[in-house]
Every structure is written in C-alpha cells, then in structure tokens.
TrEMBL record, chain A:
It is found in: Cell membrane. Keywords: Cell membrane, Membrane, Protein transport, Transmembrane, Transmembrane helix, Transport. It is a single-pass membrane protein; Single-pass type II membrane protein. The keyword rRNA processing does not apply. Its main location: membrane. The keyword Amino-acid biosynthesis does not apply. Belongs to the ExbD/TolR family. This is Biopolymer transporter ExbD. It comes from Gaetbulibacter aestuarii.
TrEMBL record, chain B:
It is a single-pass membrane protein; Single-pass type II membrane protein. The keyword Transport applies. Its main location: membrane. It comes from the Bacteria. This is Biopolymer transporter ExbD. The chain crosses the membrane at residues 12-37. It comes from Gaetbulibacter aestuarii. Keywords: Cell membrane, Membrane, Protein transport, Transmembrane, Transmembrane helix, Transport. It holds the Pfam family ExbD. It is found in: Cell membrane. Belongs to the ExbD/TolR family.
Amino acid sequence: MAKRAAPEVNAGSMADIAFLLLIFFLVTTTIETDSGINRKLPPMEDNDEDVVIKQKNIFTVLLNGKDQLLVEDELMDLKDLREAAKEFLDNGGIPKGQEGYCSYCQGKRDPSSSDNPDKAIISLANNRETSYKQYIAVQNELVAAYNELRDRRAQELYGETFAEMEANYNDVNWPGNKDKLKEKIEKIKVEYPQKLSEVQDTK
Amino acid sequence: MSKFKKKKGGDVPAVNTAALPDIVFMLLFFFMVATVMRENTLMIQNNLPFADQVEKLDKKDLVMYIYIGKPSQNYKQYGTEARIQLNDKFADVSDIPAFINAERASKREELVPFLTTALKVDSDANMGIVGDVKQELRKVNALKINYTTKKGSVFGRN
C-alpha cells in the first residue's frame, strides 16, 4: 500500500487570528483600581452627653472652599501637614511620673500640646466647596502621620515596620505565628490609636 | 575560475516569522488573565485622585461601588454638576439607602457586616456631594467605606 503523506497544514494565518484576539483584549482591558484609604464612619446615634476634651488635645484641620488649609488657626502648606500632625501626636505632654505619661513618645513634651497619643484627636473639617482631590490629599497626609509613628514604634520593638507586619498578617503563605503577630499589631494600635474625627459640613 | 564565483543573489534572506505566533499568544494570554470585565458602564468622568497610604480592597464580592463625577461627554444632557451613579444609572442622594439595602439583600446574611462601600469619586468633584453620600450611608449604618484612589504621591499633580 502506498503511504500517502498528510499534507502539512498552513499555520501562516494563526498569527493573524492571535493578533485579532490580542487586540480585542487590549481594547477591553481596564486595569481596575482596587485600593484606597479605608475609613470608618461614626454611627448615627446621637449621644447627648458631651464628652469634654481639652482644647490642647485637639488638632484642628480646616479645609476651606478654595482648598486652603488652616491648621491650629494657622495657614499651612499641605507638605508641612504630615510633620505637624506627627509632632502633635507624638508630643506626650504629661510629665514623667504622672498618670498617662507616654514613655515611648519622642516629641517635644510641650505641656501646651497633646497629653499622649491616646488622648490626641485630630479633627478634620471641610467645606462643601472643598475639592475631593484636596480632601483625599489631607486624609492621606494624616493617615501617613499615624502610619509613620506606628512604623517607628514597630521598628523599635520588633525590628520590622508596621506595614510589613500587617502585610505578613494578611499573607496566607506567611510561615510565622499569626496569633503572636496579631498581638503585636494590636499593641502598636493601642499605643498609637487612629483618632481622626470629621466634622460634618461647616457652612 | 568557478571556485571564486560569487554566491548567487545578493539579497537578504527573509526573516523567519515562525516564532511570531508564539510571542503574540504570550501577550494574548497575559491580557486574557489580567482582564477584569467592568461590572458597570461608567456614565461619568472618573479620574480618581492619588494617595500613597492605601490599603488593598480584598474580597471583591463584598464591595458596593458608588461612583460620583461629572456626566461624561455622551451624557451632557444631565448637566455639568457632579452626579451619583449607582448600577448603570444616574441616581439621587435619596436613592442610596435603597441601593445599599438591595445590595445587602443579595448577599448571604452572615456576610452583610463585612460589606464595604467603595467611593469612586472624581478628583474634580467637591466635598458637598460626598458629604451628603456619607450622611446617607451613616443613616443606613453602612459605616465601612473606602475612598478608592490611584497609587501615587499626592503632591505635584493637577
């Protein structure tokens, strides 16, 4: 029997087909952003009892309709906000030996600024005309101030940054002890709690 | 003399394109894997602001998206003021509780407390409308929010 060789299939147009598909996916791809600044809104229940907070423990940040920044009654540039917030949070104004003394603070210990990081509250107020971009920038700087302090503290205690610890905690493949890590993270969070309050629309 | 005859034809040989399909397929597979089909068709401009202290939103199925921005070119008849978009439709601030409740109803009950609201707001929108939305979210007790941003420095961008 005569063997007949099967004719070779011409694959020349395979590239064309692949290109067609490629171009389709190129056009339809939108790289979705799925990261952002997480926040928690305060619950609605209005408690009538006013909590008295000392003025020196509040760091007021005002954003007006022209995107200008008023920090503690002084005009400030956005780039200086992070340092100012860090200085305020890390002040630790209560003198040594008294209750509430902050042993890990490295601030100026100015008695006229915040007592300790637990008492220190940042209050952010914005106007209806404030642009969202500026608002996010301010939020970002304030969150950055907290994160930098937490990173520094974590570096002192455990030799790694807070961001690394959180990344490890969320990583399923991380080999270490997660319960211990959780404890460490909680400890840092207690030492530098994020107390950022927002004032509703100042008209 | 024939020993020294020039090789016939001086022209360059054709480039072998046999590996071209392989390269194209490689690219194709990358894009096929990386593509996430959009759930909503955007009717608004949505140029997100930049921030660098961002956290990743995990569990995509537990996220409710609220888009805010100016109506885009094709929807000019809706004006130039920033508007809210929920699920392919322009919406009013008062529609938000219904939207949240509908989203909650579509999820299993034990997952409801983990629902996060992602606010995808255009950089040029102003805080008035965002504040109103936040107020509505507080009313329906949807307190976990995420300001979705692009990753990058907040300075030097306009």
